[in-house]
Amino acid sequence: MLPEELGRAQPFEVDVLVGCDLAPAGDSDDVNDTINYAAIVDAAVAVVTGPRRDLLETLAGEIARNVLLFDAVTSVEVAIRKLRPPVPADLATAGVRIVRSR
């Protein structure tokens, strides 16, 4: 984390792409056959609102670990983009993308 980042909140966006077998839900159209998206969001939010991390890589890794705790999830891709990063270039975002599976 750069010194200028310590003095102000750093806005960022998080994307979580979950891998799992959704064929049963697609066939049945029954909510009980799919994953609980709200619970996955809650798992990601718990990490983001928890203790401060210095690196986006750490934040992404912790989100991935939390999401992989769900039984139906076999893989997860987490992308985090820092908005308007404090770098000497005109960038809209800078970030990381990780993929984890079990």
Descriptors for this entry?
3 strands; GTP Cyclohydrolase I, domain 2; alpha+beta; 102 residues; 3-stranded antiparallel beta sheet; 4 helices
Give the structure's gist in a few sentences.
The protein is 33% helix and 25% strand.
Textual characterization of the structure:
The protein contains four helices and three strands, in the order αβαααββ. It is of the alpha+beta class and 102 residues long. The protein has a single domain (3-101), classed as GTP Cyclohydrolase I, domain 2. A three-stranded antiparallel beta sheet has the order 1-2-3, with helices on one face. α3 runs antiparallel to α4 (56-67). The radius of gyration is 16 Å and the shape is elongated.
The description of the largest β-sheet is:
3 strands, antiparallel
CATH superfamily: GTP cyclohydrolase I, C-terminal domain/NADPH-dependent 7-cyano-7-deazaguanine reductase, N-terminal domain
| Percent of residues in helices | 25-40%
Strand-residue proportion = 25-35%
- Give the strand order, joined by hyphens, for the main sheet: 1-2-3
Average pLDDT, rounded to a whole number, is: 91
Helix and strand content put the structural class at: alpha+beta
CATH topology: GTP Cyclohydrolase I, domain 2
Number of alpha- plus pi-helical segments: 4
End-to-end CA span: 30 Å
CATH architecture grouping: 2-Layer Sandwich
Q: How many domains, as an integer?
A: 1
Kindly provide the radius of gyration, computed on alpha-carbon positions and rounded to a whole number of angstroms. Answer: 16 Å
